Amino acid sequence: MENRKRIAVLMGPPALFLLFLFVLPLAIMAVFTFRAGSFGAQREVFTLDNYREFLANPSYLRLLWRSTGIAFIVSALSVALAYPLAYFIAFRVGSRKVILLTILVIPAWTSYLLRILAWRLILGSNGVLNSILLALGLIDEATPILLYSMTAVTITLTYVWIPFVALPIFASLERINRSVLEAAADLGCAPWQAFLRITLPLSMPGVLGGFFFAFIPTLGEYVTPLLVGGAKGVMYGNLIQDQFLRGLNWPLGSIMSLAMLLVALVLMALFVRVVRVSDLVEG
Asked: pLDDT by residue (tens digit) across 24-55?
């Protein structure tokens, strides 16, 4: 009974927090999907026309799958770039871990908007990239080569999420028992074999956590595509923003949001299942 009371006391506030700030808003959004008309008009009428409109327009689903692909690429690039960084800090720097982790986190202290605007200046006509290309004689006039494209969105988002992806990977690497690696070396295991058979599998929870750390926010991203993507870098989050703020079509915007949430949940379930299967194989 005492353990149950402790669990209730510890889990009660977080459960209430999730209930009122996550589950309840999702339920309200689900109710909005059945309401007719835009915001403030005929809200008492319930209909399925919003779902028919969403499914009948292939551009909505096409942009959703495109944004899913971009989120996957950004997350994969972030993991690929963050893993060597986390590995170096966990195994190679010794007592300087705190200093390097602080340096890694410092950019996150800066405003997110300022970092995006900085990349807009870097990729713009008068930015660093154009200045270097002009100095090398590779171009004749300054033009925004990468700005206002999906490439600019991918580069900027990858830069933003690398520190956040590196932290869970570093935490997983830190939990690895070093004696296991020493035993592998004593048994004649090459360093690359020890990495593939021991370090990488044991760090997969951190890799998976870091991947979704980047994937879920990127899937609904709308600020970065708006500032550096332009018309060619529009993502699904921009469409949802337009429905809520400009079109005031909250029912259709709610359906789009729930569709995006469904995609994220399905992918998370698939990844968790793959990790469980791989754990069984390793065992």
From this structure: 999 988 988 888 766 555 556 778 888 888 98
- CA-nearest of 259, 254, 238 to 43 is 254
- Does the residue 97 lie in any domain? yes
**First vs last Cα of the chain: how many Å apart?**
36
The 10 Å CB-count burial string (b at 16+, else e) for 39-63 is eeeeeeeeeeebeeebeeeeebeeb
Residues paired with 46 in a beta bridge = 35
Rounded to whole angstroms, the Cα distance separating 22 from 170 reads 29
DSSP-based three-state secondary structure for 268? helix
What CATH number does residue 172 fall under?
A: 1.10.3720.10
What gap in Å lies between CA 16 and CA 29, rounded to an integer?
19
The residue ranges of the chain whose pLDDT is under 50 are 277-283
Determine, yes or no, domain membership for 41. yes
* Domain of residue 166, residue span: 33-282
Count of structural domains, the chain: 1
For residue 26, tell me if it sits in a domain.
Answer: no
Tell whether 19 is covered by a domain: no
Beta bridge partners of 28: none
- The tokens of 115 are what? 């970092």
268, two tokens: 């998370």
Q: What distance separates the 2 farthest-apart alpha carbons in the chain? A: 77
Question: H or E element: which one contains 256?
Answer: helix 250-282
CB 32 within 8 A of CB 46: no
DSSP states of 200-250: HHHTHHHHHHHHHHHHHHHHT--HHIIIIIGGGG--HHHHHHIIIIIS--H
The pTM of this model reads 0.85
